[in-house]
Write a structure and sequence with these properties.
Layout lengths: L12 E7 L10 H18 L2 E7 L3 E7 L5 H20 L12 E4 L3 H12 L16 H6 L8 H4 L4 H9 L16 H12 L11 H11 L5 H8 L3 H4 L3
Antiparallel strand pairs: 1-3, 1-4, 2-3
Helix pairs in contact: 1-2
């Protein structure tokens, strides 16, 4: 029976999951994990895709990825999985398949689904007794900006850093619903600016650059680039510098 063609994502964003054949481990040590991430990094440089989250468990991997061109995802995964399998089989002197042929590629529909997927991926280690600060996930990259494989701006543009952390403290249920309470409303941001700085949001753009930048930097801890830009009428490329 022929396989079904994979569904293409309207957003070009996919939740990718691949597992070891027969659920066997695909990483035996940290060198193996580093090798997979390095191969992914090289492909990213060549094919210009974006990565919003990842997590390497012992026998499976999650990646939240956005392809540049429709259909690139098949090429990306084919090259990644073949290359890693060759490395693994050579290192451990084994033959045969390492990873299931039919990896999952689930099209991602909207922003709320993306946010919940990021949390789901980052909470994978928690479900087996590890912590959010698990070394082999992208969670830490959102906190220290040192992970050059990750593209965190897309997610942090939807929620500030404090909201991101608060969001991750809530146990992921598998029911991907909007989390409005975790994302401050525009009215809350306007009120915060009025109470804290005694001015209307649109007045921030009229301040001296030094004063304006201090306020924008402070707001970025709790509010998204998109929201600050929308409320203050300051261009997103200006807000994104903080």
């Amino acid at each position: 029976m022929p396989r079904r063609a994979r569904k293409l994502s309207d957003t070009k964003i996919y939740h990718i999951v691949f597992r070891g054949i027969n659920k066997q481990d695909i990483f035996f040590d940290d060198e193996d994990r580093k090798k997979l991430l390095l191969k992914l990094k090289h492909l990213k440089k060549e094919l210009n895709f974006e990565i919003y989250a990842y997590c390497l468990m012992s026998n499976h991997v999650h990646i939240l990825i956005k392809e540049k061109n429709w259909g690139d995802i098949s090429l990306i995964l084919k090259r990644l999985l073949i290359s890693y399998a060759i490395y693994f089989n050579t290192k451990y002197q084994r033959i045969g398949k390492l990873i299931n042929d039919r990896y999952l590629s689930i099209p991602v529909k909207n922003d709320y689904y993306i946010l919940n997927l990021v949390r789901y991926i980052h909470q994978n280690p928690v479900k087996i007794g590890l912590t959010l600060n698990y070394t082999w996930s992208s969670f830490n990259g959102y906190l220290n900006y040192t992970d050059n494989l990750l593209d965190p701006e897309f997610i942090l543009d939807m929620m500030g850093e404090k909201s991101f952390l608060k969001f991750h403290q809530i146990e992921e249920t598998g029911i991907f619903e909007p989390s409005d309470k975790l994302v401050p409303s525009d009215e809350e941001l306007k009120l915060h600016i009025l109470k804290t700085y005694n001015m209307n949001p649109v007045e921030i753009s009229k301040l001296d650059k030094k004063d304006r930048d201090i306020i924008l930097s402070s707001l970025r801890h709790s509010y998204s680039i998109r929201q600050i830009s929308r409320v203050t009428k300051i261009a997103k490329n200006v807000v994104s510098k903080f």
